[in-house]
Design a protein that fits this description.
single chain, 1 helix, mainly beta, about 10% helix, elongated, about 190 residues, four-stranded antiparallel sheet
């Protein structure tokens, strides 16, 4: 191998001062990039009494502040799952909530409820019951897409099955049609 007649170049032997200078330069570049960001977008609300701004969407009802038609014998209620979406095509979101009585053990059955608020801001109210707790089912997966509510319902084939471990699974869906929610078995591919 032939050796070079040129002296060693300084950058071929990095020293701690070289790494410190590189780190300082990189920190400066990152800081300048952070300062050069555009201003954040700001939403404005319409003035009082002017109604809803065009394109503005009302907030979905808060499932935790609703009162559910559950008979809990003094036990508190719990909300296990929620999803939101415009279910009836009115441009305002509804909330679908899986709620149940809190139990010390086991898996209490869920009720699946549709919540809405009126045109005036107020407490959410239950407008439909998609799944009655008396059916003895719990809600696994829950989703809303294009006005269609889909859920996986879990249940038990007999009273011999421990209440911790559902052995039945059913995929169902509900769609608003003709002033009511119609239930169907979910189709494959959804």
């Amino acid at each position: 191998m032939q050796t070079s007649a040129a002296p060693d170049l300084a950058h071929t032997h990095a020293r701690p001062t070289h790494w410190l200078a590189t780190a300082t330069a990189m920190a400066g570049v990152v800081a300048l990039a952070a300062l050069a960001q555009p201003a954040p977008a700001v939403a404005t609300l319409p003035a009082a009494g002017t109604g809803t701004a065009v394109g503005a969407v009302a907030p979905a009802p808060d499932a935790k502040s609703a009162t559910y038609p559950l008979t809990c014998a003094g036990a508190p209620t719990a909300v296990a799952r929620t999803v939101t979406g415009d279910l009836d095509g009115d441009g305002r979101p509804e909330t679908v909530a899986a709620a149940h009585c809190q139990a010390g053990s086991g898996t209490p059955p869920h009720g699946l409820f549709v919540l809405t608020t009126g045109r005036e801001a107020g407490a959410p109210r239950v407008v439909a019951t998609l799944l009655d707790p008396a059916d003895g089912r719990t809600v696994g997966a829950l989703a809303v897409r294009d006005g269609l509510v889909t859920a996986t319902l879990l249940g038990y084939s007999s009273t011999d099955v421990p209440r911790c471990c559902p052995d039945e699974r059913e995929a169902v869906e509900w769609r608003w049609s003709g002033g009511t929610f119609l239930r169907a078995t979910a189709t494959a591919g959804r």
